[in-house]
Amino acid sequence: MEMEMDMDMDIERRRDTHLMPSQDLTVDWRGRPSNPVAHGGMRAAAFVLGLQSFEIMAIAAVGNNLITYVINEMHFSLSKSANVVTNFVGTVFLLALLGGFLSDSYLGSFWTMLIFGFVELSGFILLSVQAHLPQLKPPQCNMLSEGDHCVEAKGIKALIFFVALYLVALGSGCVKPNMIAHGADQFTPQDPSQSKRLSTYFNAAYFAFSIGELIALTLVVWIQTHSGMDVGFGVSAAVMAMGLISLVGGIFYYRNKPPQGAIFIPILQVFVAAVLKRKQVCPSNPQMLHGSQTSNHKVALSSHSANLIPTQKFRFLDKACIKSQDGTTRESPWRLCTLTQVEQVKILISVVPIFACTIIFNTILAQLQTFSVQQGSLMNTQLTKSFHIPPASLQSIPYIMLIFIVPLYDTFFVPFARKFTGHTSGISPLKRIGFGLFLSTFSMVSAAIMEKKRRDSAVNSNQTISIFWITPQFLIFGLSEMFTAVGLIEFFYKQSVKGMQAFLTAITYCSYSFGFYLSSLLVSMVNKITSSSTNGGWLHDNNLNKDRLDLFYWLLAALSFLNFLNYLFWSSWFQDPPSLSQKLQQDNLHHGENSHLQQQFFKEQC
After folding, report:
1. What is the pLDDT, as a whole number, of residue 296?
2. CB atoms < 10 A from the CB of 251, how many?
3. Is residue 496 a part of any domain in this protein?
4. 223, 246, 261 - which closes a domain
5. 291 with 338: CB under 8 angstroms?
6. Residue 406 domain-assigned?
7. Mapping DSSP to helix (H, G, I), strand (E, B) and coil, where does residue 256 land?
8. Based on the domain organization, do 124 and 204 belong to the same domain?
9. Residue 135: which CATH number?
10. What backbone torsions phi and psi does residue 36 show, to the nearest 5 degrees?
C-alpha cells in the first residue's frame, strides 16, 4: 500500500511539473543545463532589450504614421482610415496570445522570436515595395481638397497592402510577449538580489521601448515625411534586421526555459474534473485532497505551500481534487487533479478582472495614435522658418520625458519606496497600475479642453493655433503609461503560474488589442447615436472642424474615471489576506495545531 501511494505521489509531482516546472529548469543554446555564472543576468537580457528597442522602432514608425499613409496614398476616408489603424494595432496585440502559446508549448521564447521576427521583416519589405511602385497604388490625389474625386485603393492594390500590413501584425504580435518573457527569464525571482534586478529589468524594458518609440517618432517619421513612405518602410525593415542580429548575438548567454507541451491541457483537466465531481462533498480533512501531501504524508510548509492549500475563491474547483472513495482505483487526470493545478487555475481566473480594467486605458491610447495625429495636421506645425513638426511626431513628446523619468524612477524612487513598503519594486504592481489608470483620465480632460479651443479658433476666428497646445495630453498619458504598462507586465509575469510566463505576458498585450477594437466600436456607435437627419454624428465628417471630437474626448474621460473606480474594487478583491500556510509559518504553530486549523479552514471553504 505504501509503495502504491509513493507511485501516486510520483505521478502527482510529474503532473504538477507539467503545469509548474521548476523555476531553475533552464538550458543553454545546446539544450544542456544552464550555468548560473555563464548564463542569464542583465548581460543576457541586454541583447533582448536591443531587439525590443529596434522592433518597437520599426513598427512604431509604421503604426503611428499609418493613418497619414492610408488617407493620402490609399485614399480611405478619415473614419475608415482610423479603423484600419486601430484594427491593425489591435490585431498585433491579439496575436500576442498566439506567440505566447507557441512559445510556452512548443517553440520556446528564442525560436518564436527568431521565426516570427523574419515574418515581420518580410511584411516591412513588402510594404516598402508597394509604397515605391506607383502601379500598386491608386492615382495620386489630394484628399483634403479633392476628397470626393479620389479613387480608393481596391482589388489587388488593397490586397497587397493588407497582406503586407498583417504580415507585420503576425510577426510583431508573436515577437512582443516573448521579448519581455525571455528577458525576465534571465533572472531568478526566488533570489532576493535577482528579484530586485528583475524589477530593474522591467523598468529597463520600458526605457528601451521609450528609446525605440522616440527615434521612430522623430527620425524615422521625418524620413517618411521628407523622403517618402517607401523609404520610411525600408528603414523599418533595416531596423528590424538589426534587432534580429541583436537577438542572435546573445545566443551563447541565454538561459532558456524549455517548452512545456500543450499548456492548456492541465487547465482544462481542472474544469472537466470539477464538473464531473460537482455532486461530491469536500472532506473535512484537507490532507485527503489529491496533491496535499508530501512524501512523509505531512502538509508542506515550503515557499510554495500557498499553492497546496485551498483558497476562498472559486471553491467549486476544489472538487477536482477529491479522490474517489475506492482508494485502490487510479483515476484519470481528467477526473482527478492536484491542488497545485487547481490553485493555478484560480490564479488565471482571478487576474481576468485586472486585465479587463486596462481595456479603457488602451482605448485612450488609440485616440492619441489616430485622432490626435489628425488634430496636429490642422494646427500650426512650424517650429522655425524652415522646419515643420510632422504631426505623427507628436507622440514622441512623452518619450522625450520618459527617457529621463524612467531611470530616475528606478534609481531613486524605487529604493526610497522600498524602505517603507518592503516591496522589491518599491510599490506593488497593482498600486502602480491604479495610479496610471487615474492619470489617464486627465489626459482625455486635457485633450477635450484643447480640442474645443482649437476648433473654436479655426471656426470662429479662422486662426490656426500652435501644435504645442496638444502637448499636455501626450505628456500626461505618457506618464500614466509608464505606471500602468510596466505594472501590468510585472503583475502578470510574477503570478505563480509557472511555465506560462510568455502567455501571461501576451495577455497584457491582449489588453491593447481589446482597447483598440473598442475604440473602433465606440467611433461607430457614437456616430450612430449622435447622428440626425441633418447631422452625420460627432465623428462623421472627414474634417475635424466640422466634427465634435471634443465631446468624444469628454465621453472617454468619463469612461476612464468610471473604469478607475471599477479597478479599485477589483484590485481590493484580488488582494486577499495571506494564505493559511503563510499564517501558520508566521505564528510558528506546531503540527497538531496546524492540522486542526487546516481542517477548520477547509470546512469553511467547502
Report:
1. 35
2. 14
3. yes
4. 261
5. yes
6. yes
7. strand
8. yes
9. 1.20.1250.20
10. -60, -25
